[in-house]
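We emphasize that the prediction below concerns an isolated chain of 93 residues; any contacts that depend on oligomerization or on bound cofactors are therefore not represented. The input was used exactly as deposited, without trimming of termini.
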Amino acid sequence: MNAVYIGIGILVFLWVFFHLHRRQRNRNKVICVIESNCVGCNHCVKRCRCHVLEMVEDETGKHAAVKYLDKCTACGDCIGKCKFNALKLIKRL
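Result of the prediction step, given as a token string:
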């Protein structure tokens, strides 16, 4: 039984460690929308936990846009959800 607890403890420790490492690595990055690839499917907006993205409609059509750039943690969840390669991480200015 102790081996199970040790195994679970190691898994939790590794998950926390890699999560913090990912945040540290992406601290200098921010999300960017490639409007020509965006089809306005709204999947990335729903996936964003920090509510950084929003859908806008202009003369080119409906597409995602970065609303609150300072809130972006560059977690990459929205990039994983986009099937059209309309999102990428760039260096924060």
